[in-house]
């Protein structure tokens, strides 16, 4: 008789070392210069956009923001997917949308909740979504996307389509009950879904050492009978290779996969958080110097003679101008029409919605000084 408390730690798959050198040549992906440079440019674009929008929130120009500092290598996972694969994100996956073609205007319009926002101003900033790009709209509650992803994957399987669901989440979400329900359903129903865990060390302010005792999140996948892999989350090609292989398992064999991406959240959790209340600046600076995913990938590109200092400076200058231009345009636009408060839920609005709409109209007419209609599309004339 023997009680088992632990097993050998699950290894971490890596393609490049910290200096961008390929460890095992057989694992280096055979991709074109254009393919690799696009990933890198998207990583830089995301980094610059994050900086500008973070500062905009600090200036009171938008209400909220979350950056991707230190985690940009997850864009490698987007590059490994088919454009028809459906994405369920958490909130730090804007790089996936960027890779798929979400424009800078789309990002800015959403963060400003203006009249051109696809979501019509109904979501707080960074809660993106795009039907065109197969990216389900992000919702704030932690882990709700996980069981939704399992259900959507089962529906996809029944449809006969050769695609899968990609579901992103943080290691903090793995402490929610929804995580366990989702994995169990996916395993028992053989759903074509990839669960991509961004283990960045912190569930807001809770470090992983205080959140779980076992061998990370990957060990839980094995417990549910799911194909599992742990990768270096700062290694673009490790993320790319693992996602590509995971997708093949999901699509061809209807097997769910759990992929744990080990990285480090350099940024604060969000603009509502001050991470130096629970970790030291010295720790953050150490990680920034130790392993920056953008720098690591740039070294790989330079070794291939696919990138140069001149190209770096030129692209950073030009993309910063593009981001600022989109930012400036979005800031000047009006807010969506007030009538959008009542649209898109019912085909024919029921009486309670009609009553609410009339009540709002009455309030606006009675207290016009409290409702700056000039800031809204149509100035409330269509109410």
Automatic annotation (TrEMBL):
Entries under Gene3D superfamilies matching the protein: 3.40.50.970
Annotated GO biological process = branched-chain amino acid catabolic process
Q: Which keywords are on file for this protein?
A: Metal-binding, Mitochondrion, Oxidoreductase, Potassium, Thiamine pyrophosphate, Transit peptide
- List the subcellular locations: Mitochondrion matrix
* Catalysed reaction, written as an equation: N(6)-[(R)-lipoyl]-L-lysyl-[protein] + 3-methyl-2-oxobutanoate + H(+) = N(6)-[(R)-S(8)-2-methylpropanoyldihydrolipoyl]-L-lysyl-[protein] + CO2
Q: Which InterPro entries match?
A: Alpha-ketoacid_DH_E1_comp, DH_E1, THDP-binding
Mention any one GO cellular component term assigned to this protein in its UniProt record. Answer: mitochondrial matrix
The Dehydrogenase E1 component domain, residue ranges: 41-337
So what EC number does this one have?
A: 1.2.4.4
Record flagged with keyword Mitochondrion: yes
Q: Which domain of life is it from?
A: Eukaryota
Q: Kindly indicate where the leader peptide sits in this chain.
A: none
Indicate the enzyme's highest-level EC class: oxidoreductase
Short name of one Pfam family: E1_dh
GO MF annotations in UniProt: branched-chain 2-oxo acid dehydrogenase activity; metal ion binding
Where the protein is mainly located, per its record? mitochondrion
Cofactor dependence is on: thiamine diphosphate
Function summary: The branched-chain alpha-keto dehydrogenase complex catalyzes the overall conversion of alpha-keto acids to acyl-CoA and CO(2). It contains multiple copies of three enzymatic components: branched-chain alpha-keto acid decarboxylase (E1), lipoamide acyltransferase (E2) and lipoamide dehydrogenase (E3).
Q: Which family does it belong to?
A: Belongs to the BCKDHA family.
State the name under which the record lists this protein. Answer: 2-oxoisovalerate dehydrogenase subunit alpha
Organism listed in the record:
Gigaspora margarita
